[in-house]
Structure formats: C-alpha cells, structure tokens
Amino acid sequence: MHLQRIRVPDFRVLKDVDITFEQDFVPRIFPLGSLNGGGKSTLLQLIFTLLHCSTDPEKKPFLQNLLYGFNLREDSPKRTLAKIDIWDNGKTVSLYFFVCKDSHIQDLLPLNNNSKSIINSNLKFSTPYRLENLQSKSSVLTTEISNLEKAKKQALTSEVIEEFKRILINLQDSRIFTPNMVNLLLKRHEIEKTIRICSQRLKAYCDLIQKIEPVFPKIKEYLEENHLLFIDQYKTNESDIENENTLLCNIKYNKSKFDNIENKISEYKSFLIHLSQKIFLAAPSTQVFLFMDQEKRNLLFKSRIIEDEDYYSQLKTAKSRLQNLFTYDFLAVDILIQSFKDAFDRDVTEVVETGNYGNHYHNLTKELNQMLFNKKINIDKDLNGVNFTLDRNGETIKLSPEDLSHGELKRLSIYMWLKHHNIEDAIVLMDEIEIAFHPDWQYQIIQDLQEWAPNNQYILATHSYELCQALTPAHVKELEPKLIQQNPEN
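RESULT FIELD:
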C-alpha cells in the first residue's frame, strides 16, 4: 500500500497542494516540510480521516468534525476536498472526495417533471444509506418487539428486568432510543409502553421504506455508473439544521477494474475498508484537535478544572475509537505491558504444544534493551507496570522516571507501537517525529524506521534539517511557505 499523490485545492490553510510520493523510491520515507502554519499537520489529519473513517459508522463523527466550516461555493454545485492516488497491488486507485448538496442528484438524473414532483423529497445522494439504515432499524425493532411480548407475559422477576434492560440498551445502541428515554423506561419498568413506542416507530420506518424503495434503483444506478460512493452528511455550522451537505467519493482503478463487477458499490466499500486498516497516524497530543467537534477543540485553551470536560479527556475518548491513531505520550506503558503479556502467553503455548518453553519473552526483552543501550527494562511481577535498571560497575541501580530522557521514552514508544500493532505494508503518517530527539537521533530515526518496519511508507511532517539530510533531496516534499535553511555564518 502506497500513497502516490495528494491534491488539495483549498482546505483550511492548504491551498493548491499537489504532492507526489514516488513508489519506486528507496526507502519509502518522505519528509514533509514547511514553516510553522504551513498546514503539515492539517494535511496529515485530512489524509488520515478520509482514508480511515469513511466506511465505519462509529468513525463518521470525526469526518463531520473535520469538515465543519467547509462550505460550498455560491457559483458551483460541488466543491473538491481532496484527490488521493493509492498504489495497491500493482495498480493505481484514484479517490476523488468532493462535497455537494444532498439533493444535487435531482439536477443530474434525467427525470420528467411529473416524476420529479413525486419523488423529489427522497431523491438524494444519501437515500441508499438512509434506506439501509431504516431496514436495519426495522429488523432490530421487529426482533425486540417479539422479545418484549414474551417478557410482558412473565412475572417481573430480576431475570425479566435484565432482559428488558438488554433490549433497551440494544435499542439505544441502534440509535432508535435516546439514553434519556432508556433511563426513564427502565426506571419505571414500562414494558407495555415500550412495546407501544416500538410498534409506532416500526410503522413509521416501514412507511418511509415504502416511499424510498421506488427511487433507490435510480440512485444506485447513477452512483454505480459514475463510480460514486456516498460517504456522509455533515453540518457546515451550528445553524445548518437541515444538514444537507454530503461527502461523496469517486473511485476509479486504472484499467477499469470495477467495470465488470455486478455490485460496484459493495466493491468500493470493500476497498475503502481494506485501505482504512492500512493507514496510521502518529502525532503530538496537541496536534490532533481537528478530530474533535468545535466545542471540544476550544477546550485546548481552557483551564483543566473539570476533569471530564478537559481537552485530554476528550482526546482519550477519541483515541479509543480511532484505533490507528497514536499520540506521542511519554511512554506507551499499556502497549509495553501488553507486549510482555503476549510474549508470556506465546511461550506458555509453546510449552503446551511442544513441551519446550519458548523464547518470545527473552527475545522481546533483548530487543528493547538493545534500544536502551546501557539501560534495561523489565515488567513488574504483578504484570501491571514496567521498571528500568542500570548496570554500573557491577551494581544494578533501579531508575526513576526522571532518569530516562523524553527522547529515549519516545523512541521506545514508537518502536513498540509499530511492533505491537504489527504495522506492515501500511501508510504511516507521522507528525513532528523529531520533537525531543537530539539532532543525531533526528538523523538516525530514518534508519530506525527502515529497520523496524521496512515495508511501510512513511510521510513525516517535520522542521528538522537533520532528518531531511538523511535522505536524498528528491525524497523531501514541501508545502508553502517552504523551509528556509539558515546561513551558518549568521
């Protein structure tokens, strides 16, 4: 998997961006430079969000947050967001992400005036997604109404109450009931009222499905003929109540790979799902605020008085849903501990299967200690922490956190992140990787990445000349305003 080219005409600070990352370059590591404010972080987050969040409903809010404020031009029915070329399995896949009004398809389909007047309210790009969503909710409701009817006939025992709770939680997870409604119904154990509400909603969903189904084939046909995939709807501002802007993606393979496939939309989704698992972002905690909504972004500049409402607690929530996002914490302790546990488990498995204790724990410890030079790392006996020691003149000295530099911990964290998640044949975006590294280590990190996971492509947003000098000038890509090398005589 390789990012070949990215073009962004106009998104936030990014203007007329057109960068090519040659797939035949060795190593596949590309520094991305500019002065502060040039948009390096924004570009990496845009690429990551489009490629990682476009197919997973749980990640769609991060797309909506990123697109907040991205309006349509008055003189055009659509606006380009980004064009991304991906080299995959010997072919180039072109992804063209653009925004238009959800109802713009009404101007594109050849329908007579009578047809338009009948189906206009449902003739939208989002209709296939809406139909799928309604069918899914109807299926959930049908099942749970049946379960509620069974519960209604039984005495209100603790088992019945637990089943009622399960049903309500499922309805909430399916976005049919709100949390407040669930709490209210559960508090009163109102099974009959719940059946009544569910039945009313099921009827409403079925009525909508009947209205939408006639226009669905026309929209599906148009999307397939034009290699289009509906991604999501979003608000441009808080007053945009109708939420009519939609994000679409035009997907094309060289040599028209999709032309002879019966269900092209399904194939488009499958490719984007595969791609989403191969795109990763590592960045400082303060650089990933674009994933949050406008209110949460502003928390970065607020006092941390209320722990549940500060920026970092919101970032923690975002990271739990963006599995391929990694922030440079002082030390990825959880990853380290889990890696040790996994190594123990593999050793035990080998004992059971072969009768010989494995070397996974020993090899992991050896690899980590080689990175730390004269220091050693061990997992605590209770498996809930790690500790570091230093051998000095035959004496083992236990180290405190302050005895390890920020650079040592960061280098160790990056190594563990790549290894623990088995990141291979992936596109790895890394923002300001050089922070806390001595200039020698900024130069060395290029060789480190080559050794740790050589099959990946790395795009490194950076201010470091030392890092750039570890590669050929052709590897280095720049955004305006470009880096200006200081004259040593000044």
